[in-house]
Amino acid sequence: MSISKKKEITSIGIMSGSSLDGADGTLVSYEKCTSILAHAYHPFSDSLRRNIDKIRLSKAIELTDFCKLSSDIADEYSVVVKKLSDHSIKLKRQIDVIGAHGQTIWHQPPLYSIQICNYARLAHKTGISVVGDFRNADIANGGTGAPLAPLFHTAAFYSPEEKRSVINLGGIANISVLGKPTLGWDIGPGVTLIDSWYAKHNSEGSFDIYGKWARGGKINHKLLECMLGEAFFSQEPPKSTGQEIFNINWIEGRIRESNVDISAQDVQSTLTELTALLCKKTIDKFAPKTDALYFCGGGTKNTYLMERLAEVNQNTKLHSTKKLGIEPEHVECGLISWLAVKHILGEPVITHHITGSQCAPKILGALYPAVNHLAASRA
Question: Average pLDDT of 91-103?
């Protein structure tokens, strides 16, 4: 039976975020609604994290190193696929497609966005067709290429009975103001600065587990005001950003500019407060009538950050997307699997109100077929 005629489609969505901790994947079923069937995780090695950071920070790499890194990430992704494939066998489900986001190393609309992964290698190793490179079709259509999460947030979480907004606390935080149409854009740093600063000053781990280190510091309001002066924050949406701007160099530049004598731990507390205030300011300005604010993404595991968000947003009900049926750490992978399904069904999406693209609908992503798999799906 061809994919287009199936009543139920099963897909895998894989992505790796700015924390570089590893690759996450979900096994997802699409019929009348979205159902997350399984989740898998595979940690990145220290050497792989260093190689990715080398590109992001130096902005230069030998082409041979680039090719190897692209293939290495595909191999890491294939481990996640294997774990989820084992689940699908137990559930007696055929996987129709893999959606792979790749590792973002550069995002520069209106020119190009690079999510590194050897998608063809991933399709070959897994025997399952892969859809990847989702952002560049939108950029070519005049958009910012990101965030794309509001598309899935609308499909999974929209309700005419409740005015909902969803904030994804990934490396970069983005918001979806759900409606007809849904609006969405990047707010600014979610946990990318928090993670980067922690990793620079602590030998254990690459992120501040539960925000314990930040909790022990003090917020420096002079530094905070300097950080809030970043031009991107006052830019009107649609807008997107990434680690090209928000990185260790940005933090150190703001410390010098504010001329504060401050401990590394106090910087961590201030960075956490920055994310909390950016979310509050965004809601207050663009979605003041929000009935309930839902959070997803890896940043929801940062207990101290979630406490600060609750403190500064006392007039709004705050929830995890778990209340809406999807665990917060599964939402982004759900987006990638959903986009892959849209692609293979030939269903374009409209991103105009989110990324500022042209109004014409567009099919996002590029297909990397696994020949035998694709032939079977068309039988």
Answer: 95
In this predicted structure, what is the pLDDT of residue 85? 96
Q: Which residues of 75-108 are buried (b: 16+ CB within 10 A; e: fewer)?
A: ebbbbbbebbbebbeeeebebbbbbbbbbbbbbe
Pairing label, strands 172-177, 164-169: antiparallel
User: For 239, phi and psi rounded to 5 degrees?
Assistant: -160, 150
Bigger pLDDT: 49 vs 40: 40
Longest dimension (CA), the chain: 68
Please state, in angstroms and rounded to a whole number, the distance separating the CA atoms of residues 45 and 61. Answer: 19
Name the nearest CA neighbour of 143 among 360, 308, 299: 360
C-alpha closest to that of 95 among 81, 75, 74? 81
The amino acid at residue 298 is G
Task: Specify the 3-state DSSP secondary structure of 235.
Answer: coil
Residues in the chain: 379
Owner of token pair 């774990």: 83
Q: In whole angstroms, give the CA distance from residue 256 to residue 108.
A: 26
Strand (E) or helix (H) holding 108: strand 103-108
Asked if residues 73 and 117 have their Cβ atoms less than 8 Å apart, the reply is: yes
When the pLDDT of each residue in the chain is averaged and rounded to a whole number, the result is: 93
Residues 212-229 as b or e (16 or more Cβ within 10 Å = b): ebbbebebbeebbebbbe
Q: pLDDT tens across 316-375, in order? A: 999 999 999 999 999 999 999 999 999 999 999 999 999 999 999 999 999 999 976 554
CA angle 88, 347, 164 (to 5 degrees): 80
Report the pLDDT averaged over residues 59-73. 89
What secondary structure letter does DSSP report for 301?
A: G
> Left (φ > 0), alpha (ψ -120 to 50) or beta: where does 122 sit?
alpha
Fill in the DSSP letter of residue 332.
H
The DSSP letter of residue 321 is G
Q: How far apart are CA 354 and CA 351, in angstroms?
A: 5
Q: How far apart are CA 157 and CA 321, in angstroms?
A: 8
